[in-house]
Automatic annotation (TrEMBL):
<protein>
    <submittedName>
        <fullName>Prephenate/arogenate dehydrogenase family protein</fullName>
    </submittedName>
</protein>
<keyword id="KW-0560">Oxidoreductase</keyword>
<dbReference type="InterPro" id="IPR050812">
    <property type="entry name" value="Preph/Arog_dehydrog"/>
</dbReference>
<dbReference type="InterPro" id="IPR046825">
    <property type="entry name" value="PDH_C"/>
</dbReference>
<dbReference type="InterPro" id="IPR036291">
    <property type="entry name" value="NAD(P)-bd_dom_sf"/>
</dbReference>
<dbReference type="Pfam" id="PF20463">
    <property type="entry name" value="PDH_C"/>
</dbReference>
<dbReference type="InterPro" id="IPR003099">
    <property type="entry name" value="Prephen_DH"/>
</dbReference>
<dbReference type="InterPro" id="IPR008927">
    <property type="entry name" value="6-PGluconate_DH-like_C_sf"/>
</dbReference>
<dbReference type="Pfam" id="PF02153">
    <property type="entry name" value="PDH_N"/>
</dbReference>
<feature type="domain" description="Prephenate/arogenate dehydrogenase">
    <location>
        <begin position="9"/>
        <end position="302"/>
    </location>
</feature>
<dbReference type="InterPro" id="IPR046826">
    <property type="entry name" value="PDH_N"/>
</dbReference>
Length: 313
């Protein structure tokens, strides 16, 4: 039992995937929620969630799922979150907290400002954690340990009750192991375009380019992938629907960062073309320091091979 204690007597999670399942498992493990309901549009996901005992109740009916819920977490692809919020709005009890786990926040914040949601505390959120796995079996309680969750409270909801709801939701995430930061939604989208969205776009592009090269067979790509390419394939194996939605929803910030990256890539291309070893060495030294800073901040393992070989020896 977490020292935080019970925060929400009833929690409903819409979407039984990696993040939704992990939210349930973490909240249950730390004793911060009571009754748990899952709503999912997929009959297969509902059946599997029931089979593994992921929640107390599983349904495909959103109205039934959110009835009397104290906390509703929307864990569906980004482009569907606004529609889900609109669909559940008439059925939410007054004073409930509505949040999400989407990787973009500006469009979701706009949806959460709908007049129909004024009776609840709508607080956009984003746990920065995940793997390339998906589905009801992908979740695990430790996913958020030591990771960041960013909340982007609505700026026009500045009353004391809303602030208390934000503080309570922050306590929920901390109880699940996360560090919590509050941020303005557009700034969040710019930051995530740099640290998450652009890297995924690069990974998808590199893996796709390798697959298209006529002089490299598929077997060779797989055979020699112990180098950096393997790490790109892990990222590129992420949920296609989720990432399709992210790039559509956050296109302005992604395109801005992509333009900057293209300029930097051209600078590296010139340095390579002209044999400018000093420029290359200085750039690689600076980026190596960033990697070490990430490890020092506890956001990655310093173990050889990223800890993948743990337990093999």
């Amino acid at each position: 039992m977490s020292p935080t204690g019970l925060l929400y007597p009833k929690m409903t999670v819409v979407g039984a995937g990696l993040i939704g399942g992990s939210v349930i498992l973490a909240a249950r493990a730390h004793g911060v929620v009571g009754e748990i309901t899952i709503a999912d549009a997929s009959e297969a996901h509902r059946a599997r969630a029931l089979e593994i005992g992921l929640a107390d109740h599983v349904t495909g009916d959103l109205a039934e799922a959110v009835k009397d819920a104290d906390l509703v977490v929307i864990a569906t692809p980004v482009l569907s979150i606004g529609d889900v919020a609109a669909a559940v709005a008439p059925h939410l009890k007054a004073g409930a907290t509505l949040t999400d786990v989407g990787s973009t926040k500006a469009t979701i914040a706009e949806a959460f400002r709908a007049p129909e949601l004024a009776k609840v505390f709508a607080i956009p959120g984003h746990p920065i954690a995940g793997t390339e796995q998906s589905g009801p079996d992908a979740g695990f309680a430790e996913l958020f340990e030591g990771r960041w969750t960013i909340l982007t409270p609505l700026a026009d909801r500045d009353d004391e009750a809303y602030a208390a709801a934000v503080a309570k939701l922050a306590s929920f995430w901390r109880a699940c192991g996360a560090q919590v930061e509050l941020m303005e939604e557009k700034h969040h989208d710019l930051v995530l375009a740099v640290v998450s969205h652009l890297p995924h776009l690069i990974a998808y592009t590199i893996v796709g380019s390798a697959a298209d090269l006529e002089n490299v067979t598929e077997n060779e790509v797989i055979k020699y992938s112990a180098s950096g390419f393997r790490d790109f394939t892990r990222i590129a194996a992420s949920d296609p629907t989720m990432w399709r939605d992210i790039f559509v929803a956050n296109k302005d910030a992604v395109l801005e960062m992509l333009g900057r990256f293209t300029e930097d890539l051209q600078a590296m291309s010139r340095a390579i073309r002209w044999g400018d070893a000093d420029t290359l060495h200085a750039h690689f030294t600076r980026t190596r320091a960033i990697r070490r800073g990430i490890v020092a901040a506890g956001q990655e393992s310093a173990e050889p091979n990223f800890g993948r070989d743990r337990g093999k020896h």
